[in-house]
Amino acid sequence: MIISHKIRLDPNNKQATYFAKAAGTARFTYNWALAEWQTQYAAWKDDNDLPKPSQFSLRKQLNAIKREQFPWMLEVTKNAPQMAIIQLGVAFKNFFAGHAKYPQFKKKGKSHDSFTLTNDQFSVDTSRIRIPHLGSVRMRETLRFSGKILSATVSRTADQWFASITVDTDSSHVPPAENQGVVGVDLGVSALATLSTGEVVTGAKPYKALLSRLQRLSRSLSRKVNGSTNRAKAKRKLAKLHARIANIRKNALHQLTTDLTRRFHTLGIEDLNVFGMVKNRHLSRAISDMGFFEFRRQLEYKADRRGGVVVVAGRFFASSKTCCACGEKLEKLPLSVRQWDCPTCGVSHDRDVNAAINLANYAVSYTVSACGGGGSGLGRKPKAKPAPVKQEFDCKFDDVQVCISSK
To answer: With contact defined as beta carbons under 8 Å apart, do 228 and 389 qualify?
Structure first.
């Protein structure tokens, strides 16, 4: 299993300057290669006898001219420009496959500063990473995973440098889930997650908590003169606050997803249309503050490591409008309605708990049908509705007795 561990570095001024030079070299090389690619591709379309551009040919072309035209590239590791061209080749491959947009030029100050090292260009020794032309750089923690080290990407967030070390490791050392059964997880705005067990996780909501300070720093930055030292200082302060907000959100999501995958073997969630949800101008800020996509990403890879299963219900699965007791489906259920009574069986439902129970039922029926059909795996988007399986048991939430059925 290939996994990465992102570790904060503690470089001195000389080392931080080297990182900035290497990141700038990678950015310049990426832009140079993109311009050459566009020029050579246009020439190839006019005359097919000319060679078609590729990341391999561009790497050879750069090696032939960099000592004369770009001698400053020799001040940093050779991986910085070479890996930038390889990454451009991957970007074009994804574009032609329809998986990504056309590659764009990177602008200094706006693009993410980073460069990549191959495993023969660095080594890790407990709490230090050794880089060519630089020496040993202190890491804030040791590498958590053991195995073959493949690569490392050094990047900057605000004024801090990080090394993301990729390791090919054996996942057998990861303890399996406690297998407390199946759980449905309903994501929301007022509460980050509501479980089918009745547990409610409020969520950190760091953007909302630090919004006033963020607005104050943004106004301070807008008043500074472009290019001035004070503007650079204000920009660093604002970047540090944005990084803090992101770190608080990621930490809360890591704690939640780790707890869920450690306790439950099968987890049912919804395939939310986050892109469409943020178009609601009344809820867009609160939805973005929750981090729904990051939650699903973490949940899937952590469940996979522990041998668990994540079943993703379809985007149009009516989890909130369907009665978990009798299966009655309402025509409409506005977001403002948080409690509702089933018109058929009369059971009173909490909107979020009912949705979580329906997701748990869906996960049960999907995994049962998958096992009966010759094996199960990581459930993402089932194409067909699983066969109904009668499995009833009683649950009690908030003194309301309901009957859960996977039918």
So the answer is: no
User: Which residues, at least 6 apart from 306, have a Cβ–Cβ distance to it below 8 Å?
Assistant: 174, 175, 176, 177, 261, 262
- Specify whether the CB–CB gap between 294 and 361 falls below 8 A: no
CB count in 10 Å sphere of residue 146: 10
The residue to which tokens 């369907």 are assigned: 322
What is the structure's pLDDT at 132?
A: 77
Predicted local confidence at residue 13, as pLDDT: 94
Task: Please enumerate in sequence order all residues whose Cβ is within 8 A of that of 205, keeping only pairs 6 or more positions apart, or say none.
Answer: 286, 289, 290
Q: Supply the residues annotated as catalytic.
A: 186, 270, 352
Other CB atoms within 10 Å distance of the CB of residue 339: 9
Stretch among 164-168, 187-191, 368-372 having the lowest mean pLDDT: 368-372
Q: Which of 223-232, 277-286, 322-331 has the highest mean pLDDT?
A: 223-232
The answer to whether the beta carbons of residues 166 and 7 sit under 8 Å apart is no
What's the burial of 371, exposed, middle or buried (CB within 10 Å: 0-12/13-18/19+)? exposed
Kindly report the length of the chain.
Answer: 407
Output the DSSP codes for 61-96. HHHHHHHHH-GGGGGS-THHHHHHHHHHHHHHHHHH
Summarize pLDDT for 144-163 with one digit per residue, the tens.
888 899 999 999 999 899 99
**406: pLDDT strictly greater than 50:** no
Instruction: Report the alpha-carbon distance of residue 206 to residue 247 in Å, rounded.
Output: 9
Q: What pLDDT is attached to residue 385? A: 39
Which residue type sits at 245? Answer: I
- Residue 126 CA: distances (Å) to CA of 2, 3, 9: 20, 18, 13
Q: Which residues pair with 404 in a beta bridge?
A: 393
Which residue matches tokens 């986050």? 274
Over its C-alpha atoms, the chain yields an Rg (Å, rounded) of: 26
Using CA atoms, how far residue 388 sits from 28, 223, 320, 370, in Å, is 58, 63, 19, 12
pLDDT value for 171 = 65
Q: How far apart, in Å, are the Cα atoms of 301 and each of 122, 144, 180, 193, 250?
A: 27, 17, 19, 18, 15
